[in-house]
Amino acid sequence: MTEHVLLRHRDIPDLHKLEVYLQHGGYEAFKKAVTTLTPQQVIDEVKTSGLRGRGGAGFPTGVKWSFLTKDSFPRYVVANADESEPGTFKDRELLERNPHQFLEGVMIAAYAAQANTAYVYLRGEFWDVAAQLDASLMELRQQGLLGKNLLGTQYHLDVYTHLGAGAYICGEESALLESLEGQMGQPRLKPPFPADKGLYQKPTIINNVETLANVPPIILQGGCWYRNYGTERSPGVKIFSLSGCVNRPGNYELPLGATFRHLIYECGGGIVGNRKVKALMPSGASSTIVVATEDVLDCPMDYESVAQKGTMLGSASVIVLDETVDMAWLALKIARFFKHESCGKCTPCREGTYWMLHILEHLNRGEAGRGDLDLLQGVASQMVGRCLCPLGEFSVLPILSSLKHFRADFETHIK
Amino acid sequence: MLIDKYRSQIDTALSKYPPSQRRSAVMSLLHLAQQEYGAISGDSLAEVGALLGMTPTEVASIAGFYTLYLEHREAKRRVQICTDLPCALRGADQFAEELCASLRIKLGETTPDGEFMVEAVTCLAGCDRAPMFQVQDETGIHYYEGTVDQPLTAPRALEILAGLKARST
User: Fold this and answer.
1) Mean pLDDT of all residues in A355-383
2) What is the pLDDT of residues B38-91, one digit of tens each?
3) Rg (CA), chain A
4) Is the dihedral of CA A94, A95, A101, A104 positive or negative?
5) pLDDT tens readout for residues A24-70
6) Which CATH architecture fits A327-411?
7) How far apart are CA A115 and CA A77, in angstroms?
8) A83, B125: Cβ pair inside 8 Å?
9) What is the model's pLDDT at position B2?
């Protein structure tokens, strides 16, 4: 791709500065929406584009926006900038280098929802990012792009940052809302869904940073234009976060439907030391691990095709594992992450992640017997379908899939 | 008292939320308290609680849940190295070991001069620039990382830490 839709800062220097962003068509989409379109027309345009949530779930964004409970106000828009999944680092680049395109997306979403307040929930570690965003928001207020009676209309809007303090679980939307309300970040039972009872029990739209960054170009150039990229059911462009055993890890913006092979070998410069690729984790640490067969490498990276291979595209955070990676070691790393991040609310996850880690530590120290692999499989299997939120459900996927495909790696550690 | 020294920051934090939802500012106020006192003490729990209409126990439940709030201040600075899977695949564990060896401590320990506590933490959203770390101190939280072509090395990290120490003395 010659010109970026999302990573535009790679084509335009200093795009994070408001004056540069304005020189390159910045906030024209917001002006177009507020002064020439109704909120419903904005929602329809996003529906036409076929944009799907980029945080992992892949739910159609315009459809999500249309679920807001009718005639119930105030409403809120919340941007999920709690990026914390091992392997995912795309939102951070957008927030640091192209923040105005993201903020403009937040503002358009707020207008579509007829919300007068929007929050950007940032993970606590993004301290410097929050300071930069606060400065950008202040500039927008001074320029009259945020505040009362925007652009000569009756519409009011302000946007605020909210800094978290270290909890992966707050990326789960209902835990995020709890955290924003000043509570422990523990997920809520659903339903009700946020579009009905979200922040302060009011109708709320929650979207991922990258999802929102797609909105300004869609409003400016039209939903049909967006469909020029990607596939029929997975339209548009996506930022693929490539990490692990590749020569050039990084974020790559590609149309949905590009192949794993293209990402790993053309973009990422191939495997370190020209080694063989062993397996892939297409959606970060919470992936179902797939064996990197020729067939998988040629698989188009769109939501449907990747699902057909028995895994998920999710947030498209592709961790590449080469032939030297020991899957028992990998499972230990993953189990340690999820045990640390389990919020403790539901028993299957709180206990399950603890025991998976315990068994894997035992195994990696060479102290486990043959029955321990069955025990590990048993613990993980019993968590499936019984956890309160996706964190627990996803924590077993890498463990079960690595046991299934690479059991020999585990068996070599048995005493 | 926080309210005397940080009145404008506290007002800004409260102004973000509806007047009936003061509790939403608890995370901001805890960040302020930690910047001022280095950790979240019993006194801060009461002070933050009084500002927001929460009991000290309610504030403690928040301070205890989130990992960036510290109960004790072991060192002037917390050096937090990501050793999660993607970083580990690019040498983060060896980097952490080398850095600790140069500082003559083990992971999780504090240097004898009380300057640095070094620990392994979970993902910091910098997987492509591994190895990388963040430093948490009285100025907030800041990232340190190399590039794909020039990844951070333990000697370079030592220089960065020496620079931070020199800045504060």
Assistant:
1) 97
2) 999 999 999 999 999 999 999 999 999 999 999 999 899 999 999 999 999 999
3) 22
4) positive
5) 999 999 999 999 999 999 999 999 999 999 999 999 999 999 999 99
6) Up-down Bundle (1.20)
7) 7
8) yes
9) 85
CA distance B4 to chain A (A): 23
B139 CA: distance to closest CA in chain A (Å) = 10
Which residues are paired to A313 by β-bridges?
none
* B86/A319 Cβ within 8 A: yes
Closest Cα to residue A217, out of A408, A13, A27? Answer: A27
In this structure, what token pair is assigned to residue A10? 């790679």
Domains and CATH numbers, chain B: 2-65 (1.10.10.1590), 77-168 (3.40.30.10)
Residues in chain B: 169
User: In chain A, what percentage of residues exceed pLDDT 70?
Assistant: 100
Q: What percent of chain A has pLDDT over 90?
A: 99
> Are B16 and A164 an interchain contact pair (Cβ–Cβ within 8 Å)?
no
Whether chain B has a CB inside 8 Å of the CB on A249: the answer is yes
Tokens standing for A349? 């996850």
- The residue length of chain A stands at 415
pLDDT, tens only, A170-190? 999 999 999 999 999 999 999
> Which pair of structure tokens corresponds to residue A338?
């999820």
Write the DSSP assignment of A277-313 as a string of letters: EEEEETBGGGPPPEE--HHHHTSB-SHHHHHHTTS--
Strands A158-163, A204-208: pairing is unpaired
Share of chain B above pLDDT 70, in %: 99
pTM over 0.80: yes
Q: Tell me the one-letter amino acid at B122.
A: T
The β-bridge relationship of strands A76-81 and A204-208 is parallel
Q: Residue A91: which of A58, A123, A136 has the closest Cα?
A: A123
Strand order in the sheet with A277-281: A250-255, A237-244, A317-322, A277-281, A290-291
CATH level 2 (architecture), domain A8-226 = 3-Layer(aba) Sandwich (3.40)
The answer to whether residue A395 neighbours chain B at the CB level (below 8 Å) is no
Give the residue carrying structure tokens 């080398």.
B98
Domain spanning A237-322 has what CATH number? 3.10.20.600
Q: Which residue has the tokens 């992992």?
A: A56
Reported as a single tens digit per residue, the pLDDT across B81-106 is 999 999 999 999 999 999 999 999 99
- Rounding to the nearest 10 degrees, give the CA dihedral for residues A247, A249, A251, A257: 60
Name residue, tokens 């109708």.
A203
Contact A255, A229 (CB under 8 A): yes
Domain ranges for chain A, please list them.
8-226, 237-322, 327-411
Dihedral (CA of A238, A125, B2, B23) sign: positive
Provide the ipTM: 0.96
Interchain contact, B61 vs A184, CB within 8 Å? yes
Residues paired with residue A37 on neighbouring β-strands, in sequence order: none
d(CA A197, CA A208): 19
- Does residue A1 surpass a pLDDT of 60? no
Listed in sequence order, the residues at least 6 apart from A57 whose beta carbon sits closer than 8 Å to its beta carbon are none
